[in-house]
Specification:
The protein has about 60 residues and is an alpha+beta fold. The chain contains two helices and four strands. It holds the Pfam family DUF7455.
Length: about 60
């Protein structure tokens, strides 16, 4: 899994519509964006499933 920091994610959480903090790009194509709550809830799955993860600068996420 490759991690990248970005100043701001403009996408909304795919689960609840809140501001996105983590965006995961999947090996089969496509991506999922998570708010802080859902990123923390799905840390293990994101870490093992995503090829590339973009994290908003300043967001503290357990996978890093």
């Amino acid at each position: 899994m490759t991690l990248t920091l970005t100043a701001e994610l403009t996408e909304r959480c795919d689960r609840c519509g809140a501001a996105g903090k983590v965006r995961a790009f999947l090996p089969a194509g496509g991506d999922l964006t998570f708010c802080g709550h859902h990123a923390h809830s799905h840390t293990d799955t994101i870490r093992t499933s995503a090829d590339w993860v973009v994290i908003e600068t300043g967001f503290s996420w357990g996978a890093i």
